[in-house]
Amino acid sequence: MPRATLLRRLGAMLYDGLLLLALLMVTTGLLLPLTGGEAIAGSNHPVLRLTYQLTLLALTFAFFGLFWTRRGQTLGMSSWRLRVEREDGQLLTWHDTAVRLAWSILSWLPAGLGFLWMLIDRDRRAWHDIQSGTRVVVTEKVQRPQRRG
Q: Is 80 exposed, middle or buried (0-12, 13-18, 19+ CB in 10 A)?
């Protein structure tokens, strides 16, 4: 399978980012009654703030983990015909997901240098692909039956 290009991967990230943002916003909205509708700040509610941050982190991990360990694709990746897999072609494990997500943060931190690395890597791998032993491939286009009529 051909490896995904940077632009295709960025498109899928944009789609998934919007979905994840919506999920995190709904979660935040559900927690606001606990603070009387005020922002969850450390000075006002230190325990709630920590719980809130851990909840958002767990939701982010679950969002990617459930898709990657079951289908190899998030909804955004599916739209852009991408799939993430281990180098042996198998679906990711939860451990692979944790390593990939942790390294993806590091790929973004130095002005996206970890993603730009794809432009010089012969296998189009970003830092988090290399460190987690994963790859992002382009899937085949699904042929839909034509309607009669």
A: buried
State both tokens at 129. Answer: 């692909």
Q: Which two tokens stand for residue 24?
A: 């995190």
Q: What is the pLDDT of residues 47-69, one digit of tens each?
A: 888 889 999 999 999 999 999 99
For residue 134, the surrounding DSSP H or E stretch is strand 134-138
Q: Using N-to-C axis directions, what is the helix angle for 46-70 and 94-108, rounded to 10°?
A: 110
- 96 Cβ neighbours under 8 A, 6+ residues apart: 68, 86, 132, 133, 134
Check residue 116 and give its pLDDT: 96
Length of the chain (residues): 149
pTM of the predicted model, to two decimals?
0.88
